[in-house]
Amino acid sequence: MCGVAGILAGGLDGSSRERAICSMVSTLNHRGPDGWGIYCGVEMALGHTRLSIVDLQGGHQPMMSDRYVISYNGEIYNHIELREDLEKKGVVFSTTSDTEVALKAFEVYGAEAFSLFNGQFAMLIWDRREKELVVARDRYGIRPLYVLEHEGGWYFSSEIKAFDTLSGYRRTMDMQALFEHALLWNTMGDSTVYNKIRSVSAGTYERFTTQGRASVHRYYEIGESCGVSPATLEEAGEALEELLLDSVRLRLRSDVPVGAYLSGGIDSSVITHLTSLWNRDRFKTFSVAFEDAEFDESFFQKEMVSRINSDHLALEVGYRHIDEHFLDAVYHFERPVFRTAGVPLFMLSEKVRENGIKVVLTGEGADEILCGYDSFKELKLLEFWGRDPASKMRPLLIKKLYPHLRHYSNPRQYGLMKMYYEGFLKEYDNELSGLNIRAGNNRILSNYFHKDYPLTFEKDRLIETARQVVPDNFSTWTLLQKNQFMEMKTLLSGYLLSSQGDRMSLAHGVEGRYPFLDHRVVEALFYFKDRFKLRGFSQKYLLGKTYGRHLPDAIINRPKKPYTAPDLKSFFHGGGLSEQAAHFLSEDVVREYGVFDETMVGRLVAKFNRGMPAEVGYRDNMLITFILSCQMTHHWARNPKKDPLDPAAMTVRIDDR
Fold first, then answer.
1. What single-letter DSSP state applies at residue 626?
2. In degrees to the nearest 10, what's the CA dihedral of 317, 321, 322, 326?
3. Long-range contacts of 84-92 (CB under 8 A, 24+ apart)
4. What is the pLDDT of residues 7-30, one digit of tens each?
């Protein structure tokens, strides 16, 4: 699958609707490598670009039955089992595609079908008899799906850039939402950083009639299963092994070869190990190697390649590569980012496709469900310290928070760090949980926005927004469970899966699959005991204990280090900004776009034009990357790409009902 688009009602006649849907489809992941199709009815138009993975010949879309039409982006991994169940009910199939399974399942079960799907999807289903559109998104928001109300009509797309082709519409930023994104690395709820564009929430479906949106329904929520934890670590490990092994089995279903990403960390190493158990043939693995030794993990990658004997390709990335590809990557990000980590993955997916691979398994999701982020350690420290705020011993644990950062073990920095964390002792357990610290770090961005926008850091407002997102049983969870929920609702679905996952791989026609995000795995691990996931400050403890005998010691015993890429250093060469970065951060362009204060941006740039320090902290890396990517996002909103369609590759279905 690749991309979907739809138009419901509005003031468009048939030919205008057909032209509009063609224009929207023309932006979707370069039209998809395997052709595209449109359906045009009296009230509804649907479009699709295809990445052929299952049933290469018979799975073309939009797909029609007597009553329904579907345009669907994603994969239903348990389609074989669902097909067997439907056939027992007398359903007859004409293809072997998972698309037809999704369509027929909806015919039989209605919206209850979404709860039966094990997969990732953005789905538009048009009911030709009832004149109703059902719009659905997978449980964790792996596949994006956006909605725009414009000139009396409703427009839907798996990519925001498709809306740029609509007559009379111009994408503009919602500054308050942009500031929320700046604080949390994503907006909460269904908002986006753009005016009038919202996101269909993960785990929901919506119904639309020709008069507009009729209803919103949630079919899934994280943590609603009320699971029970195994009693012992050994039992938890056995449960994890069984679930994850089957998750990988399902995600290897494909009519084309499947590869895997190998970062050098434990998450991707576990996935490649499990892939090797199901795949008797030598399969392809791919990784990024950095010229800068600070970021390079190729030693660990080679250790794992040697263990599983995969056919491996490593892409070496330097500062200038990131600089040169950043603008194109931002085009696919479709929103500002805070680090450049997605750019090497954007480059890598191109190499993956050149090597004949359309599908890769990756390790995303493990940090959220197994407490792998540093925010979990910080919360644990604050909770322990909060029981005795006057203690002189408990704050000393600050030094152990980040073993890979030298300044955390520097005695001269300890006093400042202690004061910093003390500021969160009274608020670490509110609805934001770990997002309190992220917002605290990023609040400095309020100084850089244009003075015409009165954007101020209002913690109470963020907390109130969070309260609208959390479920009714939120208060019964542990602090770490609360943070798991918030990380999945913000960082994972709206940022990582966009800036490092789905958008970066599909930019070059490669589908990412995420075994850790099988809902069976997530639901079970959510209720595992906290100490199984975070033992002391040992992150993803259960994963290491369970798979330690299968992975190289160097990977199991290495300190946790997040995947990162050079940020600020990628844009400063020879004592000044690169040509492209200098353009977007110039006083004239900053003033023209009107998002940031040109004086403040100028001061920030001047700070590093005088020379790059030996160590650059989180804040400076974040400031430069966010401001530059925001400028580039604004550029693409003002200058949409135009890509003419090839009629020979198009499948058109006209419906006069």
1. H
2. -140
3. none
4. 998 777 878 888 889 889 988 875
**For the residues 330-358, what does the mean pLDDT come to?**
95
Neighbours of 180 (CB within 10 A): 23
298-308 vs 266-278: helix axis angle to the nearest 10?
20
Does residue 654 have a pLDDT over 80?
Answer: no
Which amino acid is located at 616 in the chain? Answer: V
Give the neighbor-by-neighbor strand order of the sheet with 204-209: 63-64, 68-76, 119-127, 132-137, 204-209, 212-218
pLDDT of residue 404: 64
Question: Alpha-carbon distance 614 to 636, whole Å?
Answer: 34
> How many CA atoms are closer than 13 Å to the CA of 2, on its beta-carbon side?
30
At residue 144, the 3 state secondary structure works out as coil
What are the DSSP calls for 404-422, one per residue? T-GGGG-HHHHHHHHHHHH
Quote the tokens at residue 533: 């996931």
d(CA 137, CA 146): 10
pLDDT band, residue 1 (cuts 50/70/90): low
| CA distances to 88, 90, 236, 259 from 251, in Å | 25, 27, 22, 11
Q: How many CB atoms lie within 10 A of CB 383?
A: 15
CB 343 within 8 A of CB 503: no
Note whether 399 and 377 are within 8 A (CB): no
Q: 3-class SS at 435?
A: helix
The span from the CA of 172 to the CA of 188, in Å, is 19
DSSP assignment of 9-48 equals ESS--HHHHHHHHHHHHTTGGGG-TT-EEEEE-SSEEEEE
For residue 22, report the phi and psi dihedrals to the nearest 5 degrees: -65, -40
587-631 pLDDT, tens per residue? 999 999 999 999 999 999 999 987 777 777 889 999 999 999 999
Q: How far is CA 507 from CA 159, 520, 567, in A?
A: 11, 29, 21
CB 101 within 8 A of CB 83: yes
Query: What does the angle CA 179 – CA 180 – CA 183 come to, to the nearest 5 degrees?
Result: 90
- 550 burial level (CB within 10 Å; 0-12, 13-18, 19+): middle
CA 76-365-137 angle, to 5 degrees, is: 40
Task: Look at the pTM and tell me if it is higher than 0.90.
Answer: yes
pLDDT value, residue 418: 85
Torsion angle (degrees, nearest 10) of CA 487, 124, 172, 631 = 50
Residue position matching structure tokens 């959390």: 470
Residue pair 322/548 in contact by the 8 Å Cβ criterion: no
Task: Take residue 186 and report the two structure tokens written for it.
Answer: 């994503």
For residue 656, the model assigns a pLDDT of: 56
Six token digits for residue 19? 């032209």
Pairing, β 258-261 against β 359-361: parallel
- For residue 393, what pLDDT band results from cuts at 50, 70 and 90? confident
How far apart CA 136 and CA 109 sit, in angstroms, is 14
- Read off the pLDDT band of 405 (50, 70, 90): low
Dihedral sign for Cα 169, 173, 177, 178, please.
positive
- Beta strands 284-290 and 258-261 are parallel
Q: What would the DSSP string read from start to end of 92-130?
A: --S---HHHHHHHHHHHHGGGHHHH--EEEEEEEEETTT
